[in-house]
Amino acid sequence: MSATPLSYRSPGFVADAWRLAKKDLLIEFRTRSAFLAACVFALLSVAIFRFTWDATAVPAMDLAPAVLWVIFTFSGLLGLNRSFAVEQADRAMDALLASPMSREAVFAGKALANLVFVVAVQALALPALALFFGLPVGSGWWGVVAIVLLAAIGLSAVGTLFAAVASNTRLAEMLLPMLALPFFVPLIIPAAQASVILLNGRPMADAANWLKILLAFDIVFTAACTVAFPYTLEE
């Protein structure tokens, strides 16, 4: 009886994406290079803003949201820079693309790993911000946490797409911010405006319009980046 060739099939979009995200997160957990760099950047930024802040000129409630979103944007870029560097050294990306995994699943897995990275850094930055600036901790902070999560989704989607584009160049660290930052602007503006409203003790209803813009950004750009991603990997 002749041997029947084995048929290798991908287990599914969600399983593929989770497997790739888990691999990236395990590598980062073992090295901790990008995460520690982002955490140091976040804490150093909070400290610098705190000790150069004149409380008589700018109230803490006005400055703190700006500090939060500066940290959010640039610490996110630190994580995005390493997103595809893992596969570049030994051309592992070629093997990944040759696997049964769809390219959309590759994008979803990379974006999910980046999302976890950004959220983990912000989980450290938010308490540090409240502590350094003496912000009152109330119910409005739950709304700020929700805004950070929504913004992290959009940043991870857009950043993953441009990290893939930049990874094929020799100046990836310089090119990624140039490509991604203009697309972060429509994400950061509504997130910053909504967080200002909530940190000043106003109700969530006052921030509803900004939240709708942020949610629309997430939906549109996540879908668009998923569709565009396979073309960024063409030689």
Describe this structure in words.
The chain is mainly alpha-helical. The protein has one domain. The protein has helices at residues 13-31, 33-51, 60-81, 85-88, 92-98, 103-132, 140-167, 172-199, 208-232. Helix 2 packs antiparallel against helix 3 (60-81), helix 3 (60-81) packs antiparallel against helix 8 and helix 7 runs antiparallel to helix 8. The model is unreliable at 1-8 (pLDDT under 50).
Question: What attributes does this structure have?
Answer:
235 residues; mainly alpha; single chain; disordered N terminus; 9 helices
In short:
This protein is mainly α and 235 residues long.
| Overall shape | globular
Order of helices and strands: HHHHHHHHH
Distance between the termini: 42 Å
What's the story with the biggest beta sheet? none
Q: How many DSSP E strands?
A: 0
Beta-strand portion reads under 5%
Total count of domains: 1
Arithmetic mean of pLDDT: 84
Radius of gyration from the CA trace?
Answer: 20 Å
Supply the helix-strand structural class: mainly alpha
**Helix coverage percent:** over 70%
| Count of separate DSSP helical elements | 9
Give the uncertain stretches in residue-range form: 1-8
Topology of this protein?
Blueprint: H1 13-31, H2 33-51, H3 60-81, H4 85-88, H5 92-98, H6 103-132, H7 140-167, H8 172-199, H9 208-232
